[in-house]
């Protein structure tokens, strides 16, 4: 429990020990740690959702890594910037050594951020905030964004073309942004349109190396590509196009975004 007063907590997934991981740990390298943020349009789902529980268990086992799945607060009861504060405070909680006994085989200098959809948006902004903070224990090495949830007032070509895409529609995403953003703000808010009129200059910070997964049938793909083009000027970035929905979304029975 990071903060009981705001019900901020995370679930820790530990890898199943294998010969490979035993050798790696014995060599002193330690296992990496991924801070994972779930999707759901900032309004749905949680770390407790079966899909995300199964996913994180699988990732920990197959990647031989510790997964810290953050259960951040949701809109509309908790609007922006609550979710980003929860994500960043979880990093500080781990940095302060609050669960070191459970991470004895982890190398906290090999930490990564990851998230799908709304969680990808969250990971991007937590990375930006973390770039301005000096941690004493943990070190972030990269950002893994799976079909990150971004947008803007403009209607892009992919949004207008992919009107029958599974899981998400313009009506649904508009509602999600409306319930998430501070009252009176529109979709060109800097947390939504990261390359729009209110953008934040990342050229002056040490931003993380990033990989972005883009689904070929995702209506938001134009926003994701714009994000890729925007930040690749300043950092090393890889963009991976997946056929159809990304693997994470194809296997999810209910995935609003």
Overview of this protein structure:
There is one protein chain. The protein has 257 residues and is an alpha/beta fold. It has a single domain (9-16, 29-240), classed as Rossmann fold (3-Layer(aba) Sandwich), CATH 3.40.50. Helices cover 31% and strands 19% of the residues. It contains eight helices and seven strands, in the order E-H-E-H-E-H-E-H-E-H-H-E-H-E-H. The protein has helices at residues 19-26, 50-63, 82-95, 118-130, 157-161, 170-180, 221-231, 247-250, and strands at 9-13, 31-37, 66-71, 106-116, 140-146, 210-215, 237-242. A seven-stranded mixed beta sheet has the order 1-3-2-4-5-6-7. Helix 2 (50-63) links the parallel strand 2 (31-37) and strand 3. Helix 3 packs across helix 4 (118-130). The two termini are 26 Å apart. Mean pLDDT is 88; it is low at 244-257.
Indicate how many domains the architecture comprises.
1
Helix content class: 25-40%
CATH class: Alpha Beta
Strand residue percentage: 15-25%
**Alpha-carbon distance between the termini?**
26 Å
Within CATH, the superfamily carries the name Alpha/Beta hydrolase fold, catalytic domain
H/I helix tally: 8
Q: H/E series, N to C?
A: EHEHEHEHEHHEHEH
CATH topology: Rossmann fold
| Biggest β-sheet: strands ordered side by side in the sheet | 1-3-2-4-5-6-7
Shape: globular
Q: What is the average of the pLDDT values?
A: 88
What CATH architecture label applies? 3-Layer(aba) Sandwich
GO molecular function: carboxylic ester hydrolase activity
Organism: Hevea brasiliensis (Para rubber tree)
InterPro entries: AB_hydrolase_3 (IPR013094), AB_hydrolase_fold (IPR029058), Carboxylest/Gibb_receptor (IPR050466)
Pfam family, one: Abhydrolase_3
């Amino acid at each position: 429990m990071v903060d009981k007063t705001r019900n901020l907590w995370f679930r820790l997934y530990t890898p199943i020990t294998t010969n490979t991981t035993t050798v790696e740990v014995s060599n002193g390298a330690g296992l990496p740690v991924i801070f994972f943020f779930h999707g759901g349009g900032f309004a749905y789902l949680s770390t407790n959702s079966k899909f995300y529980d199964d996913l994180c268990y699988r990732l920990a086992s197959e990647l031989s890594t510790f997964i810290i799945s953050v259960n951040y607060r949701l809109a509309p009861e908790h609007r922006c910037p609550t979710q980003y504060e929860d994500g960043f405070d979880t990093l500080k909680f781990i940095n302060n050594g609050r669960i070191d006994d459970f991470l004895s085989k982890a190398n906290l200098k090999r930490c990564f951020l990851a998230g799908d959809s709304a969680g990808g948006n969250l990971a991007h902004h937590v990375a930006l905030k973390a770039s301005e903070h000096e941690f004493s224990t943990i070190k972030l090495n990269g950002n893994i964004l799976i079909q990150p949830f971004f947008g803007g007032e403009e209607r892009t070509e992919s949004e207008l073309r992919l009107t029958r895409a599974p899981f998400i529609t313009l009506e649904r995403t508009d509602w999600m942004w409306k319930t998430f953003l501070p009252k009176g703000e529109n979709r060109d808010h800097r947390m939504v349109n990261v390359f729009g009129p209110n953008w934040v200059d990342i050229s002056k910070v040490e931003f993380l190396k990033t990989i972005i997964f883009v689904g070929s049938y995702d209506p938001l793909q134009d926003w994701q590509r714009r994000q890729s083009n925007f930040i690749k000027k300043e950092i090393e970035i890889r963009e991976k196009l997946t056929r159809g929905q990304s693997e994470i979304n194809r296997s999810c029975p209910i995935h609003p975004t």
